[in-house]
Amino acid sequence: MSDWWRGAIVYQIYPRSFQDSNGDGIGDLNGITRRLDHVASLGADAIWLSPIFTSPMKDMGYDVSDYTDIDPLFGTLAEFDALLARAHDLGLKVIIDQVISHSSDKHPWFVESRTSRDNPKADWYVWADPNPDGTPPNNWPSVFGGPAWEWEPRRRQYYLHNFLIEQPDLNMHNPEVQDALLETMRFWLARGVDGFRLDTVNYYFHDQDLRSNPPNPDGSQEMATDTYGMQDHIYSKNRPENLAFLERLRALTDEFDDRMMVGEVGDGGQRAIDLMAAYTKGTKRLHMCYSFEMLGPDFSAGHFRRVIEGFLNGAPDGWPSWSFSNHDVPRHVTRWATHAEDQDALAKQTVALLMSFEGTIGIYQGEELGLPETEMEYHELTDPPGLRFWPEQKGRDGCRTPMVWQNDAPHAGFTTGTPWLPVKVPQIARAVDLQDGETGSVLAAYRAMIGFRKSRPSLVEGRTEFIDCKPPLLAFQRIADGDALTCVFNLGTSPTSVSVTSDARLAHNQFASVRNGQLKLGPNGFAFLEHDDASSPVK
Ligand code: TEU
Ligand code: CA
């Protein structure tokens, strides 16, 4: 059987915000099961569920206190089995999110580890003595602000947390920790999940000598704090020891048929390419890596070309995974809004762009409705980095507000109770029921574009060849055996045109026309061109 995940479309569900089924204001597994028809109607191949495991929810589930159970807010294991069965009936694979770089501070392993220096779990987390003056052992910063070290008076030592204080880092250098985590993953594989999204896969290992990261003079403010971007993270993460562990993970996954692992690599530039190349090399490590490169502000033709060519040339055995939105970044129609007068036109153009890429494609719940980022007030925030760095950083609540199903129902049909995050007017105006069956809607454009991708082998499995074009035009060919398409996008805000061969025809487009050897594209225009042979029709 061919690898189902190559070229697949993965729909990300943020369980807290998808559908509440019991009126407590928080989305749950039964709600997801009820709404899977919507996901299937898009033409998605798989769902990725953000974490559903037992958790104190300090980081909304990315702080796990039991790796082999479902949080009661979300449901039960039996309800998970029902979700899995329904998804499989609909032809949807199910990917779950494994957050094994750190656990919750309420995980029994950590509760025990922090009590003393000689308990059985003493070495399961990353503990270090203070400097003689009492300060933390090195300069490693937490992604969410402040030092990555927290003092534990009982041990008179610091523990490492790359994220929240409530997310202590597991010590992967300890083989017992590796074994324990692998067993929790075996539990889910045996239950029938189709794969794993590996949270923060490049944070699994730290430098055992605890060397300070060197400064990074070109550092940009990648994350919540300046200090984070001002360091080169060569010791706190991205360690070569990780490769052998990824091989253990792959060996486990390969004991089961057709499973897939995608690693989240939150770096950029050449480092991201090198990490992805190493992590996906051959068939011994991960199946693919999830790229952050298209989750930022840059919407230029040059950026998309650099990132895609960088990956294809720099990680030739690898397989990329591209997304424009997720639960950690502002929604892309808001992020890229200056490139459109009409955000719906931008949403319809960007889905065409995304679906034209070589790789596996991620879409995030609500983007198929063209949802903009929700504007939040301080008192409505729940996300720790938002609360901490307001107003310079607004946190991640704005992309996590509930799905909007029904325009005239309370909270757009998400809940009969009080939703955990507010449901606001700009989102409600884009509810599923308003767009369903409307030919001009963003939802219709998503279905049409996904259908178009699936009807064209060149888009799903073809190779990519860029065509030199003047920005803001982006153009490339996708070429498979017996199928070739030329994809052209106007990423600017004015109309533009380019010469094409006289036999060029539009196979799918928005704001495009072909006449007298000219392809004209309006702002937010795109064209999929074909002609009588596999050469480029763009001159
Ligand atoms: O994110 C990893 C990561 O690097 C994020 O910090 C991301 O860059 C940031 O949120 C952007 O603002 C993963 C999860 O996706 C995220 O939700 C978790 O908070 C984080 O890991 C810790 O588990
Ligand atoms: Ca609920």
UniProtKB/TrEMBL annotation:
Keyword annotations of the record: Glycosidase, Hydrolase
SUPFAM superfamilies named in the record: (Trans)glycosidases (SSF51445), Glycosyl hydrolase domain (SSF51011)
Glycosyl hydrolase family 13 catalytic domain boundaries: 12-400
Claim: Hydrolase is one of the keywords in the record: yes
A GO BP annotation: oligosaccharide catabolic process
InterPro entries, per the entry: GH, GH13_cat_dom, Glyco_hydro_b, O16G_dom_2
SMART domains: Aamy
Taxonomic superkingdom: Bacteria
GO molecular function: alpha-amylase activity
Record carries keyword Hydrolase: yes
Family according to the record: Belongs to the glycosyl hydrolase 13 family.
Name listed for the protein in its UniProt record: Alpha-glucosidase
Species name: Poseidonocella sedimentorum
Lineage of the species this protein comes from: Bacteria, Pseudomonadati, Pseudomonadota, Alphaproteobacteria, Rhodobacterales
